[in-house]
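Hello again, I could really use a second opinion on something today. I've been staring at a protein lately and its backbone has me curious. Please have a think about how the structure follows from the sequence. I owe you a coffee for this, so here goes:
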Amino acid sequence: MEHNGKTYWGTVLSLLTKILIIWFLVSFGAGILFAPALNSISLGGYPLGFWFAHQGSIYIFIALIFYYAKKMGDIDRQFDVHEE
């Protein structure tokens, strides 16, 4: 049982790490670091770097929340710790 618990938490931490990396790249990367390069592209009349900093990051965050909830449900079922 101990091995199963360590594997479960390792899987959960792996998922969280991936989500946090995406979150960082979108919020800090696209909104700040890569904004000058992205500003050469226009989306809805606004530079893409500006759009990511103000709108795009919110959409990505909401998508990450739904992705996290779906993947955690799958992980919980895989390790038989889900709620019915």
The mean pLDDT is 89. The chain has one domain: 9-78.
